[in-house]
Amino acid sequence: MTTSNAATPDADPAVLGELTRLRDSIDNIDAAVVHMLAERFKCTQQVGRLKAEHRLPPADPGREARQIARLRALAEDAKLDPAFAEKFLTFIIAEVIRHHESIADDTACGRS
Q1: Alpha-carbon span 59 to 66, nearest angstrom
Q2: Most buried among 3, 9, 39, 86, using CB within 10 Å?
Q3: Which residues of the chain, if any, have pLDDT below 70?
Q4: How many CB atoms lie within 10 A of CB 35?
């Protein structure tokens, strides 16, 4: 999925080679991120089913706050913008809660 270098025909071939190498690494990292997110959501779906079966609330604000604080600290250690890391995790948490609410609704209606 590496972006073509056709738009820069006059560029130094060594620069184009390095650009291709870096983009290939980015593509590999993106693929790994997608696979990791898929695994994460498999686990959170199981959590959602367990919560629904035991009539636990879909959201756990205390855990969410702890996870955000934890991820911000990890981001700082990794030299990643903690605000970006928080936004990313907040987005994921919102999607997980949406899934948990749907699972709870399905369970309550006998659809699970």
Answers
A1: 13
A2: 86
A3: 1-8, 112
A4: 10
Question: In sequence order, what are the residues at sequence separation of 6 or more whose Cβ sits closer than 8 angstroms to the Cβ of residue 18?
Answer: none
Question: Tell me, what's the pLDDT at 111?
Answer: 77
DSSP, residue by residue, the chain: -PPP-TT-TTS-HHHHHHHHHHHHHHHHHHHHHHHHHHHHHHHHHHHHHHHHHTT--S--HHHHHHHHHHHHHHHHHTT--HHHHHHHHHHHHHHHHHHHHHHHHHHHTT--
What pLDDT, on the 0 to 100 scale, is given for residue 72? Answer: 98
Residue 10: predicted pLDDT: 85
The per-residue pLDDT for range 66-82, each reduced to its tens digit, is 999 999 999 999 999 99
CB atoms within 10 A of CB 78: 9
Rg (CA), the chain: 20
- Residue 17 CB neighbour total at 10 angstroms: 11
Strands (E) in 33-106, as ranges, are none
Q: Which amino acid is at 44?
A: T
